[in-house]
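Closing statement on the 6-O-phosphono-alpha-D-glucopyranose sub-project.
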Amino acid sequence: MQNSLRPLCLSLETLHRVKSRMLEAMERGLSRRTHSQATVRMLPAFIRSTPDGTERGEFLVLELGDTHLRVLLMELSGDTDQRVTMKERCFPVPDAIAQGPGEKLFAFLATCLWEFLDGLHMPKTDFELGFSFPFTCRQTRLDQSYLISWSKRFQCAGVEGRDVVVLLQDAINKQDRYHIKVIAVVNDTTGTMMSCDASAGPCEVGLVVDAGTNSCFMAEARHVEVVEESEGRMGVVTEWGSFGDDGALNDMLSPYDLQLDQASLNPGRQRFEKMISGLYLGEIVWHILTELFSGRMTPALLTKGSVQTQDILEITDEQVGLATARRVLRALGLEASDQDCFNMQQVCKAVCIRAAGLCAAGLAAIVSHMCRNRELSRLKTSVAVDGAVFRAHAKFSQTLQQLVKQLAPECDVTLVQAEGSSKGIGMVTAVASRLAAQRLQVNQTLALLQLSPAALGTVQALLRREMELGLKKETNAMSSVRMLPTYICATPDGSERGDFLALDLGGTNFRVLLVKVGSRERGGVQIISEVYSIPPHVAQGPGSQLFDHIVECIADFQTKQGMMGQTLPLGFTFSFPCQQTSLDQGILLSWTKGFNASGCVGQDVVKLLREAVKRKNHFALDVVAIVNDTVGTMMSCGYHDPNCEVGLIVGTGTNACYMEQLRNVGTLAGEEGRMCINMEWGAFGDNGCLDAFFTPFDRQVDEASLNPGRQRFEKLISGMYLGEIVRRILLELTDKGCLFRGRLSPKLQTPDIFQTKFLSSIESDGLALRQVCAILEELGLHVSCEDSVLVREVCQVVARRAAQLCGAAVAAVVEKIRENRSLEQLAVTVGVDGTLYKLHPHFAQQVQETVRQLAPRCSVTFLQSEDGSGKGAALIAAVACRVARHQRA
Ligand code: G6P
Ligand code: BGC
């Protein structure tokens, strides 16, 4: 007895080996390279989501079985306790249909459908339908599936190689009483997974152990290499019954398996299935019995098929098992002793435990794979189980559950009895319908933010017109871009020397810097700097308080650097629009971004700074230049690349400056040479010229800002606003039921929860969904996998629009420079700074791409500034000092 059963005993260690071989086989099935030869096929099922409980409406199901067709209408309430009601009817499928011409079969399916619907007497005539077609197919979409071959009882001419959805849809369309759209073809395993109630948490694995065995699970789409998608999840049907067909299980096969396989219809195939599923368990036991009772052979015992799987499962039961064993042995013509019955029970237990063990190893492989690929430390999931083997006896499930725990200790797996595949097919249909409706809504919403090349060309042309208007004295007031002269007429030439102080105010950080400008041989420019914070109440309080704070920071810096008492020339980067009349004077035209200190607009900022110094009475300051950050950046980059004639900032705010011909600057006297113009393009559109481009989200963001109606272009582009645009879109999508299951959380209603760094991190390449979820969780948003995919999509659309608009604006600038110089081709460098441009994974590339398209005659190099615009401000101070020295000499 012991000897007979030994080959069936698989130690835990062996099961671990089975698990790892299954994992390898799954990997081969998922990889594009090895998919076609893989023994475990890993077929994509084009199911992107499991039910979330919000599905609602009435859905039709056609479930074609071997002998019957079941037609079902499922109604989902879609409210908190998702009620499901089903009405169904079965139609026998006659042989003449199952083996007749294809058209007849599909006409039969359609007729049964009308008969069923007519019987319901419903006013509704529009339906979506899910079709369960249990034959080997090559599925290419949820609603596209090509029959490879008929099996079982079916053999209809003219169907193989064709898309069964088209055939069914055509048959349905032959009448016009009902409008029915076939939206899903479903495999029975996915039906099992989808039938489970969503309320207990996601059920992302389906397991069928019936006559055959199969499993499915929700994989990360990017690991399913045979489909194009890389976002979100994708249902995969493993087809694991054929695991081992390449020999992976050879060292575990018992002599009974070999005998069974040899005698089967498909020797060498479906090796795993033959050790597990209902079609074979009885037969394995039978092979063992023929060995055990070889001395007492009876005609019944000699007959294959004389032992039923159903009985085997029952015999494993502690209570009724021995009695069933006796009955079965008697039926085999054996006069069974107590010992015989006991032995029979041992045999059945060994066969079932092995089946449950192998099944557990397979399931452990699936959940471990999910856990690893989702980069989780623990995975919690329900597994929907179905099939005769589960239904017949609880023991199988218990053993399975215990062993999975041991084989995949990192996963919490709960087995749930599925509620029948018809419900699951209905759910696949309902989920597909929900996703399609949501997609439509999402597309409509996001279409507002998608700009065609022609639209971008219009933006470019509009900016060009505003630039011309802004440059001319008579029309300057009409233009939304101020085109401010900066009194900077040359870029650094490398001969600048000396130590300088610099202030850098207006971006994310306020900095005080000591800049030592030496010869290039001696290391060029060296910077020591300190970052100070400007709390919002200071940025938005009385101006005197803001400038006192700045002076305190300078004093602190000087003390730390042991520079108290020294008066170095100072360059002041002040990143707000200022009207300059000289290099060291700048009248603040308006605050932008997060600043709104009172009493400053209309004042000379340098004067405000000097007054604060005086109030503090600490030290003296020698401010020689006030510089916009775009100009500081251009200078800083110009020190390394003399071709740098444009400065661009895309950070908290956005703006650009460039070298304009003095003769074009109507607001200044002088014809010769060039001057750097601070465009202040953030205000582009403030005169209404961009109104056609604003979406409702842009208008909301503008209205809620510190400066409504102003900096309209900046509010489409820069880091301070993109997160808010995203949040407004998410609110709308939630309201439309496309996100967060339609529930608005207080968190999402909090302004400014998304900052630039969030936009940058959420779009990082290769970020697993879990990381996207983690970023959102960190913000206090509880998201599903689909939510996080959609949030990421919204971020992408908003950031892409920003980058393209920015590109269109850069194109307008470089084209103007080219035309100014009457050049066929212009080679120019743009010095760039700003957190959005630098940190966002795709922004820079999208800007550059747009410039290439819109300014094809300019070859534009983008040079990122590494040291901030404080360095540029110091260089400008250095040039000013050099010029002043020359003038004195
Ligand atoms: C540079 C400058 C800042 C400027 C910033 C823009 O680093 O030194 O003065 O305002 O770029 O970037 P941010 O993303 O900080 O607004
Ligand atoms: C300011 C500009 C500045 C830009 C980038 C805008 O809000 O008006 O002066 O260059 O932000 O910091």
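The chain is about 40% helix and 20% strand. With this model delivered, the sub-project is considered complete and its resources will be redirected to Aim 3.
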